[in-house]
């Protein structure tokens, strides 16, 4: 098992660089790596055991692979496979697939790290690979968006690295468990780095511009899996160190409400999806012990939604009401929107029920508001006009990607089939009905455009400073 794990971690890097030797096989090699990750995740699910693999005992460098890791690894595998197939008949070069598969491997590494220094290396390589994918079109706009992402990531990781150094100074080890004996400055600095990297609360306001301005397959990768590399360690901390669990849950609720608060007013399809990524990451953090299942359903549905949004005739929701879309695309859009809203028969329903059952009493009101906001937001997609001759021609590879992602949403129902009771079914149906009612009576008629001042680069750096003060206050308390 140990040898298998090390081989699985090294495989994406080996294959990624080998693609240059065999550029005609780029798509096949990349897809093979993603399928290998799916196989490894399946093994973890079947084994039902935790692998602890010490690499450098004296520094606390350790890998941990368990069921929680498996949920995120299989998400990465399915999303990457779908995006590779989506790009199969495009003019993407071997460079694109090399960066994609290196990104895939480093995201996987972040899901099995159990020490601060290995995580730092993985997150830094993720930043570089993501930057190269964002800037791939080589336009002035894409290069600026990529550089903005890279600079924010580097500032966040600088805070993180200082915190990791303080943990080592206190414990002579980089292991996650050292967080319990670390000074409060270390906890605040590490959390600031990961919250910013993961797109959480106000320090995640870099995310809407980055995800909405990237190419469609890159947006699907970023929202589906990359941001979770920053969120996953926070879940680990909450489970390993009970003292930080309340902090993680507070940011979960705050992020879910903040993201959906922006999304209900947004009229741009890709920006609305990006704000919902922020909100849904809040759901993942609100109940860390079951966040793996929510992470899986969100990764599949958000990647599907970004790929579908890339086929629509316009990004402007008002224009889409005057341009009926093709009915087949609309059906895929509705299925994904139903899942994220928590409609039964799709795994988003089970994930929401499981999350709500594991909330603390003080979290319930905030998370129900966020669930209502989700139903309001996705009513914008569900009630778009459509007809069989509508706009939107897609290639067969698009439908193969949809089969993987939407098929995954249906199959993942089996993870928590106990959710299907009358009581559990009625509550989300009422929430969705209220959300649709609020959409038709209020939000459809509103034309409020929220200011984007806080998304400017200099303000994002300022928000990190405010977040640091907030974290110090929370840790002191």
TrEMBL record:
Q: Where are the transmembrane segments?
A: 6-22, 29-48, 68-87, 94-111, 117-137, 149-168, 188-209, 221-241, 247-265, 272-294, 329-350, 362-384, 396-417, 429-447, 459-476
Which compartment or compartments is the protein found in?
Cell membrane; Membrane
Q: Does the keyword Transmembrane apply?
A: yes
Instruction: Quote a single Gene Ontology cellular component term.
Output: plasma membrane
Any single Pfam family the record assigns to this protein: Proton_antipo_M
Give the record's keywords alphabetically.
Answer: Cell membrane, Membrane, Transmembrane, Transmembrane helix, Ubiquinone
Describe its membrane topology.
Answer: Multi-pass membrane protein
Q: Which residues form the NADH:quinone oxidoreductase/Mrp antiporter transmembrane domain?
A: 115-376
Look up the coiled coil feature and give its residue ranges. none
Superkingdom classification of source: Bacteria
| PANTHER family named in the record | NA(+)_H(+) ANTIPORTER SUBUNIT D1, NADH DEHYDROGENASE
Q: What does this protein do?
A: NDH-1 shuttles electrons from NAD(P)H, via FMN and iron-sulfur (Fe-S) centers, to quinones in the respiratory chain. The immediate electron acceptor for the enzyme in this species is believed to be plastoquinone. Couples the redox reaction to proton translocation (for every two electrons transferred, four hydrogen ions are translocated across the cytoplasmic membrane), and thus conserves the redox energy in a proton gradient.
Q: Which family would the database say this protein is a member of?
A: Belongs to the CPA3 antiporters (TC 2.A.63) subunit D family.
What is the protein name stated in its UniProt record? NADH-Ubiquinone/plastoquinone (Complex I), various chains domain protein
Q: Which organism is it from?
A: Coleofasciculus chthonoplastes PCC 7420
